[in-house]
Amino acid sequence: MSARFEELDWQPTSMGELVLRRRRTPSSDVDIYEVKLGDDFLMSSMFTVAELEMARLALREVSGSDLDVLVGGLGLGYTARTVLEDARVGRLVVVDALAEVIGWHRRELVPASASLISDERCALVHGDFFGMLRSPSGFDGSEPDRLFHAIVVDIDHSPSHVLDPAHAGFYGRDGLARVAARLRPGGVFALWSNDPPDDGFTAVLAAVFATAEAHVVRFANPLQDREATNTVYVATSSGPAGRP
Hints:
The longest helix has 12 residues, at about 50-60. This protein has a 7-stranded mixed sheet. A 4-stranded antiparallel sheet has the order 1-2-3-4, with no helix packed on it. The chain has 7 helices and 11 strands. It has helices spanning about 50-60, 80-85, 100-105, 115, 130-135, 175-180, 200-210; strands at about 5-15, 15-25, 30-35, 40-45, 65-70, 90-95, 120-125, 150-155, 185-195, 210-220, 225-235. The protein is globular. Helix 1 (about 50-60) runs parallel beside helix 2 (about 80-85) and helix 6 (about 175-180) crosses helix 7 (about 200-210). Strand 8 (about 150-155), helix 6 and strand 9 form a beta-alpha-beta unit. It has one domain (about 45-235): 3-Layer(aba) Sandwich (Rossmann fold), CATH 3.40.50. It is α/β, with parallel strands linked by helices.
């Protein structure tokens, strides 16, 4: 194994082979961390601008202190770390379907790990985010009626490009209504997408939430020598949250 490429972990999972690797480009001494699941490249530490901006956009819409935040999708941990950088956050739950990903952080294999596992506000939970959303016990069996100030999700590539067909229902009206029901009044839902803004999905958001907006986040792509974009959807709830 060369110093410029190292496979840090490989695990078979129910969703395909999961690989964490670290590499360096010939022109840089900066470590780049990449995650691959089956044939899909899930994420790279080269491209975290939109993940960070998603957390900031969500929390910018929330007022008050001692905020309770839920993140769906742990990955390399950049979104969760950005949430914890907001001093108003009192508790953070991060849910990931792959125990192996949580294991990376507990073993401190990726840069964001130390700040997550050392922060007493942060709990890493192994579970199916979508299944937990449907469950009456919610995301914490000890607090089945727990409501959040913000729910931030980065799991699928986009609302129309999902990692598992079972996820598709989440992006319809009923699935989004379940999200709204888990938010406090005035709470915020934010979603990352690798695709351009989808007017149809934004319309579904607007039918469920009080406000809905698609933000285009731009960043440099040095691999292709061009500008790239992601989309962050932000929607806010109004009135008392209730079960759908």
